[in-house]
Design brief:
- The chain is of the alpha+beta class.
- The strands form two sheets. Strands 1, 2, 3, 4, 5, 6, 7, 8, 9, 12, 13, 15, 16 and 17 form a 14-stranded mixed beta sheet that branches. The chain has a three-stranded antiparallel beta sheet with strand order 10-11-14, with no helix packed on it.
- Bound molecules: zinc ion (ZN) (2 copies).
């Protein structure tokens, strides 16, 4: 399973956050308020994932609202479009994931770095689509926003997972920093969920990727002026591209064949980032 390159399919770009809390658990804003905040910030879809509770809300006309919930065991596990709440008390991580899958939810492991879990523990679990490579609130409170090392340690074993950037909004100040950009025909539940499942998205904290072209053994990326474009792969494969002077706006990587996987990470201005999903050779 390779991700669908969103730059190679027809459709429109839709911006969304998949991990949000409200006053129904430990969030600061009401469901209607968070939907409004994200709508005004240019987001097209939002999943509310209160702890152990499926929040219902009426979204503004221009927003797609997705139901969800976050369950805590050893890991924190987010279920997107969970249909029915279940009691997660005493269940193991795998049991929670399995229960979510029975309801056809999209399962994402939240903030592994914050949770203090190792990639080895994550590799023993199955049935989830990906992990959060970045989490806004974990970064704001503890500087533990990035789980990219977990991501790479898992990918280098050949494990096919996606990377998500999520706000995990608790305070209003967490809102509208991280997002995924999904390519879909329309901003309907059906199309957005299909895009996510197919990996037809990238994650970001502010860098908008202009193009990603994969042709034969060449991978080309174009982006706004950035500090660095990294092609991250197994061990010493891959490469960092920087400009000799000033900023870089495109890079082309020639695949050598020993990478196992390649994912692109862009470091833009003011520490903003973008992460593509991994491409497997
Ligand atoms: Zn959590
Ligand atoms: Zn959370």
């Amino acid at each position: 399973m390779n991700f669908v390159n969103p730059f190679e399919v027809k459709g429109n770009w839709y911006k969304g956050n998949l991990h949000t809390h409200t006053t129904n658990s430990d969030g600061e804003a009401t469901p209607e308020e968070v939907l409004e905040i994200y709508g005004k910030a240019g987001y097209n879809f939002l999943c509310i994932t209160d702890h152990n509770k499926i929040t219902e809300a009426k979204a503004p006309e221009n927003m797609l609202f997705l139901r969800g919930s976050e369950k805590n065991s050893r890991n924190h596990i987010v279920g997107i479009e969970l249909q029915e709440e279940f009691d997660g008390e005493g269940l193991t991580d795998q049991q929670i994931i399995d229960r979510m899958n029975l309801q056809n939810a999209i399962v994402i492991i939240a903030h592994p770095y914050w949770s203090g879990v190792t990639s080895g523990e994550l590799l023993r679990l199955n049935g989830y689509l990906g992990i959060e490579v970045f989490n806004t609130v974990c970064n704001r409170l503890l500087g533990k926003g990035y789980s990219t090392v977990h991501f790479d340690e898992m990918l280098q074993t050949g494990r096919k997972i996606m990377g998500f950037a999520s706000d995990d909004t608790h305070s209003r100040k967490d809102a509208a920093h991280s997002f995924i950009m999904a390519k879909a025909d329309s901003c309907t539940k059906k199309d957005i969920l299909a895009s996510i499942k197919n990996g037809c998205f990238y994650s970001s904290t502010g860098v908008i990727i202009k193009n990603l072209e994969i042709a034969g053994s060449s991978i080309k990326v174009t982006c706004p002026p950035a500090e660095a474009i990294d092609f991250i792969a197994f061990n010493s494969s891959g490469k960092r591209f920087t400009a000799e002077k000033g900023e870089i706006e495109h890079a082309e990587y020639a695949v050598r064949g020993n990478e196992i996987y390649i994912r692109i990470e862009i470091t833009g201005r003011n520490g903003k980032k973008a992460w593509t999903n991994p491409l497997f050779l």
